[in-house]
Structure formats: C-alpha cells, structure tokens
Amino acid sequence: DADVTQTPRNRITKTGKRIMLECSQTKGHDRMYWYRQDPGLGLRLIYYSFDVKDINKGEISDGYSVSRQAQAKFSLSLESAIPNQTALYFCATSSFSGTDTQYFGPGTRLTVL
Amino acid sequence: AQSVTQLGSHVSVSEGALVLLRCNYSSSVPPYLFWYVQYPNQGLQLLLKYTTGATLVKGINGFEAEFKKSETSFHLTKPSAHMSDAAEYFCAVSESGGSYIPTFGRGTSLIVHP
Q1: B71-112 confidence digits (pLDDT tens)
Q2: Does the structure show a pLDDT above 90 at A2?
Q3: Would you call A102 and B107 a contact, using CB atoms and an 8 Å cutoff?
Q4: Which residues make Cβ contacts (< 8 Å) with residue A13, sequence separation at least 6?
Q5: Chain B residues near any Cβ of chain A (below 8 Å)
C-alpha cells in the first residue's frame, strides 16, 4: 500500500462549488504539506502543518483552507472554486529533520469549469 | 531567504548521451539540496540529496549531483540517458537551522530521443 494516499485522484467541478481534497499517510510523520503544481511554475506551497495543532499558510493560501484531523490526515478545501484553481494538487509528508525526504502522494487533478 | 533556479524548462538528449540538468540556489545559511523526479501521472520521488559531508552525491538510477559551494550549484548528471529517464526533474533547497520547508525550482522536463 502507498505511504501517502490522496482522494479523489481526479475531480471536475463548477465555479462556486466547495471542494475537499483528502490526504492520508502511514509514514508516522508529524509534518504534512499541500502543494499546487502548474506547468512552468513548479510546486508552490499552499499550507503546511507541523503537527495537529500547528497549521501555517504557505505562499499561495488565498482561496484555500485546511484541516488536520489527525496526525495521519490533512485535508485541503476550496470554499468557492474558481477556474484559476485548476491544477494538480499534491500532498506530502516529512519528519522534523530538515535533511529528511518529502514523501509525495500521487496527486489530485482538479478542473474547475 | 532561499531560492532555486533551474536553467532550461526543457532539455532534450539522445539515448546514450550525457544528461546534465542545472540547478543554482540561493541560501543565507548552509543549504540542504535535493533532486526529485516526477514520472508521468505520478507524484514526486527523491533521486538524491546533499546534507553534509561528501559533495558528490549518488542517487538512484545512475544519477549523481555535485554540491559546489563556490558556484552555488547542484547540477544533476547521468553519463548515459535511457528512454525511461524521460520525466520532470525538480531541484529543491531547504535551510539548516530554519523551518526546513523546502523551496522547489520550476522543474526541467527531460526528453530522451531514440
């Protein structure tokens, strides 16, 4: 089984709809992250969480919110989706150490019409 | 503040040729440096990383990278490209003593021709 899972893998929605993307991990890591990938722009950090009670905004948090339900679960919500939020979304985890690898989920492809 | 620049959004090589993907970083403290690979329809996975010690780092699938402090570079190389190396490659940097949140480059797409 994969260490980091994301659901759904693909989602098409309409402008104004509320969308939740979910992430679960079995690595036992405290740190979890949500990234957005757009062609030519690389990965941009949306939110990150150092533990269940510590959630922080990344560089592009506007229009997004998150919830850390447990150490293993971190969900990303788009309260009112807009077309420019069409992108590939990745969840990742890591341990506390700065030398540690980030482990990525398979991604969710979101299309907002 | 840390930043990463990957030179070339696309690199095209022939199968069997040398692969060179360039990465330059900016960091105010000793950096930790990473290369990740993303195969089509998959998430990113670690190729290799530099933390401390030996500046030439070997990774999976025959890739290696050398940390050059004087040049603030961490270029990725592979002596002989294989068709299966076609993917998106990301360089990332995090700073020792900080929050350890990595900053990713914009990525380089490696195209391998038969």
Answers
A1: 999 999 999 999 999 999 999 998 876 677 889 999 999 999
A2: no
A3: no
A4: A19, A81, A110, A111, A112, A113
A5: 9, 32, 34, 36, 41-46, 49, 51, 90, 94-96, 98, 100-102, 104-107
